[in-house]
Amino acid sequence: MATMEQTRIGRTSSPGRTSSPGTTDPRLLEPLPIAARVGGDDRYTGRGVVSAFLDSGFFAHPDLAARVLDYHDLIGGKSGVELLSVAEASSWHGMMSTVVAAGNGSLSNGRFRSLAPDMKLVLVKVGTLSRVHHDDIARGIEWVLVNREKHNIRILNISCGGDYEISYLNDVMSRFAEAAVRAGITVVAAVGNSGHRGPGHIMPPASVPAVISVGGIDDGGNPHLRPATGYRSSYGPTIDGLQKPEVVTLADWIAAPILPGTPTSLQAALLSNLDRAPDHELKKIIEENLGCYPALDEVRGQPAYLIRHTIASGLRDGLVIDEHYKMVDGTSFAAPIVTSLVAQMLEANPKLSPQQLKQILVKTAKRLPNLEIDRQGWGAIQARAAVAMALEWGK
Q1: Could you say which of 118, 164, 225, 382 would form a disulfide bridge with 47 (CB–CB 3.0 to 4.6 Å)?
Q2: Is 345 helix (H, G, I), strand (E, B) or coil?
Q3: Does residue 268 sit in the same domain as residue 248?
C-alpha cells in the first residue's frame, strides 16, 4: 500500500524553493487570483452546480460559507455537515482543494476567490492523515454514484490517487469512475507529481480514459511577468498506452487557506503580526509568544533590523501570504481549478454531458510552446474560451 505522501498528490511546499523567479521575497510578488491567471469569466460563478470531492479530510472553512450540502466519513462511518466544524490533522488537504475550487475569498476581502465561489459541495472522506487506500477511493466513487440524484451531483473532483498502476479494464476503482461518467458525472482527477521520474506512474483514477486528468504548469504566480513553464506533474503513456493528462493548469504559487489551530496557523499569525508591527513592539510580541517560532526566540534581544530579517525569512520559507493563506503547489490543486471551470461551463449550459465538457476543454486548450506535448496533452485550459464555447454548444 502506498503512503499518503504517494497517494495524496499535493504538497504544501517545495524543498529549497525560497521565492518566485526574479524576486527576493514572495510577498513582493503575491500570487494573483486564479481568475486573473487563467482568464476567468466572472459572469459565471458555479451557481446551481454541485460538485463532490474525495479526500483524506475536510474542514468547513469560512471561504466555503454554508455551501456544503453533505459530508460523509467513509473511514469512520459518520455523516453530517456539523462534523466539519472541528479541524483535524487530516483536514488540511481537502480543505485546501475545496477552497481552491469553491472558495469565495471571504478572509482575503474577496481577493483569493475561486472561479466558482457559488458552487455547492458534497464531501466524502476516504483517508486519514497518513494514508488514502486504493479501495477506499473506489468506495468513495461508489458512494457518490449512489447519492448523485439526492444532491444532483454533476462533478466529482479526486485530488488523490490509487496505490498502484493497473489497467482500467481490471480495476474496480476505474470501473466505478467510468460508471460515474456514464451516469452524467464529470470526473476530474489530479494526474500526480511524478514527472521527474519520466513517463508513466499514472495511477487510477487519472489513468481512466473517461476521466479528465489534469497536469500542472508554473507561471510564477503572475503570467504577466514571465511565460508559464512545466511543472513536475506525471504524464503518460498509462499502463494501457493512453496519453495523459488531457489538459494542464496552474499547479504552483496557489493561494490556499491555512488550517486553523495548527502550528502552521499559529506561526503564520505570529509572523504576519510581527511584519505589521512597529519596531518598538517586536520584542514584546515575541516574548508573549515564546516557543511558537524558535528562530524568533533566539533573536528577540537583537536590533530590529535583525529581527525583521528573521521575520522575512519565516514568511518566505513558509510561503506565508498572511495569517489566513499560504502558497501551495501540486496537481492536487490544479484539478480543483478545472473542476471550478467545469462548474462555470455547466452554469452557462446545464445540458452539457461529461463527454461534451471534456471535448470543449481540449478544443479550447492552448499548448505551451516550451513544453513537450506528452507533458501537457492538448495544453493549458483557457477559461473564458471554454465558457464561451459551452454557451454556444448545441445552438
Answers
A1: 118
A2: helix
A3: no
Residue 374 has which C-alpha cell? 506528452
C-alpha cell at 266: 499559529
Beta-strand pair 120-125/68-73: parallel
Other beta carbons less than 10 A from residue 265's beta carbon: 18
Q: What is the pTM assigned to this prediction?
A: 0.92
Task: Indicate if 148 and 283 belong to the same structural domain.
Answer: no
Per-residue confidence in pLDDT tens, the chain, 395 aa: 333 333 333 333 333 333 443 344 444 458 999 999 999 899 999 999 999 999 999 999 999 989 999 999 999 999 999 999 999 989 999 999 999 999 999 999 999 999 999 999 999 999 998 789 999 999 999 999 999 999 999 999 999 999 999 999 999 999 999 999 999 999 999 999 999 999 999 999 999 999 999 999 999 999 988 889 999 999 999 999 999 999 999 999 999 999 999 999 999 999 999 999 999 999 999 999 999 999 999 999 999 999 999 999 999 999 999 999 999 999 999 999 999 999 999 999 999 999 999 999 999 999 999 999 999 999 999 999 999 999 999 77
Q: Do the domain assignments include residue 30? A: no
Range of the domain at 74: 4-24+37-254+328-388
Number of structural domains (the chain) is 2
For residues 20 and 166, state if they share a domain. Answer: yes
